[in-house]
Amino acid sequence: MIAVQVPGKDGQAVIQTIPDAMIRMRGEYGSDMEYSNGDYADENGYRWIDIVSYNGVYYRALKNGQLDPPTDANGNLNSSEWSRYSVFGDAAFNSIISKYISAQSITAEQIVILEDYDSANPIPVAGIVGKNKYTYNGVDYSIIRTTGPGDVDNPVVIFAGTTSNDLTKAPFRVYKDGSLVAKNADI
Question: 178 CB contacts (<8 Å, ≥6 apart)?
Answer without folding.
Answer: none
